[in-house]
Design a protein that fits this description.
Layout lengths: L2 E12 L11 E12 L28 H22 L19 H4 L5 E7 L6 H21 L11 E5 L1 H12 L7 H4 L3 E6 L1 H16 L11 H7 L13 H23 L23 H19 L14 E8 L4 E10 L2 E8 L2 E8 H4 L5 E7 L2 E9 L6 H25 L2 H18 L4 H16 L2 H9 L2 E2 L9 E2 H17 L7 H24 L15 H12 L27 H16 L22
Parallel strand pairs: 1-4, 4-5
Antiparallel strand pairs: 1-2, 2-3, 6-7, 6-11, 7-8, 8-9, 10-11, 12-13
Length: 631
Amino acid sequence: MDGKINGDNLDLYVKTNDIRMNNKNRDLHYFASDLTFDRVRLDHLEDAAPLGDPNNVNVQVFIPSADEMTMYRKSLKYLIGRELAQSIKGLEWMNAIIPTHIPHDMEKVMCERSKIFWLPLQLKNEMYHDQCIQIMNELEKHVNTIYTKAGRGGDLEKLKIVVGGDQMTRCNLQSAKNLRRGCYNQTERLEHLHPIIMEMFHTLMDFLEKLFKRFYSKDGGRDAATLANMKMLIQRTNVNGQVKSRFEAHEEFVLLIGKAYLLVLAMKIFKMENIEDSPKHPLLKNNMKYLQNKPKEEVFDALMEEILDCSLVPFQLDEGTVNVKTVELEVSFPATGQKVNVTGKIEGNTITFPLCVNNRSYVFSAPKENICTKSGWRLCLPTEFGVINMTVMQTRAPLDDLKNYVHNFIQWYYVVLNFKDTMKEGDIYRTNMLLKMMIPFFYSHSALSKYFVECIDYILKTEVMLSPRLSMRIRLSSYVNPKGGKGKNKAADMQKENEVRILKDLIRGLGANKTEHAIVTISKAAPVISDISTNFDRALKIKEGGTTHKKRDDRTDLITLVNALKKMNIWSYVPGRVLSKSNKVSETPFKFDKNMFKLSILTTVDRLKLGIPISDLEEEELEGDNEDDGQ
């Protein structure tokens, strides 16, 4: 059984009692790592040829396929059903047909307990390339030592140990490895440490950060039904838009607001006046609770499809696949001030429309981009009575900023809701599907978004560049299960963050004038100390001081939000409804140039195939460069 190394930086500010010229307060930047062994043998999978053709990578690889979209909708039905059954008493019958854990092919493997072994703390800062090389050298030594002592020295020739970390860790370690490409042997070239990939928890964190940058505005408290307004309504003072410093608070807030929006939509569909009312729908019967599971499933599926049809907007790469065949046009005659409304047909990039002028019928054709501009398409029609000037433009209904805001937000909410359940279940198939879903979301924020690149890198490696065996190892090792059990997986980097927290507590316990030797010594003892503490508590039957069972019920907050949102008709079109202070967004997150999107993906792929890490640019500098004016 092989394994995977997970690494993360350990940053600590150390104060000293006796401040001198040569002894001051210090910022410590170290590197912590662990080795997690694989939970399943994959010897039956091929380990020679790559999964795809690295020389011919199609952009469709990074877009969810029809089967993956079906998987996405199916999982959303269960997740939405859970939320509705939990909050609406008349829909509790759904609990009988909604699985506690969404099934997948690897669920038995992901229930097994992970074997995690801490590696010694390295007093190196991953921000510097020279120290990154030393970090990789040290990890290479650990791998050689472990396999040699285990009597598997002969496996080193073909051994590949996956290395995982956040975006900064992946880029810096990949750069350090590139600097050693010209060395003489495998160990010096660091070939055993391959590939280096990103992790899921930091991906979700960055996704939430982009969500708040788009939807949260500190000045938008007076704009009804927005995040800032809802924050004030339920007094969530711990939400300030700084996701990385207060991740749990912001994650809970997003899930609560998304659930409130969803319940208001359900109340509209089920004709409910309030959340305590009984749902009314032609498919619902009085004896739903007592029906057999098969008719229940049919009704459940139809209801969830109706909700998804009203709220879900799938990403479509090809503009031509959008189901729009007609367009409403307005033809104005400046000389007389007369205006005529006509209906045009869209044929490719051309709009054709009929028009009657002076009792004669004409058919005009014009490029779509000319008519759909703000100024419209100006043309001159020569007739026997003279030249007639006219202007043709698309009829634009007044915008409803609030409905667009809610509809756009719910797309992000669905991804977050699905990703959280995917991490708990350790579903590797939904993971790849959700990463593909996230790519256009990250791109809509900025073409230079860091995790736009990381999602592409993960898909490229696990579906194209690597062998089936190594690809499956990467996907399975993205999650760990420290205690074992169904639905108790967590992202590997989240586990590493927990270990770093333990190390920090132990280092702080050394006192003010701690030395580096003492820090290294206590870090080596950290896993033993943690095990002794856990076993001691278990022997004395001391309950673990977790926070899951101590969380307060948020139903009061939820009802407050739902009652307020119900009055605002957030799911109904109200012409001219304006958000004055909040960020104005389009109805979907996908209002960007699809051709530029394809080009960005293919350019990124070409660089990643060469092993060139994308530099960590300040994406905020170009934020919104690829977005429409409506976003």
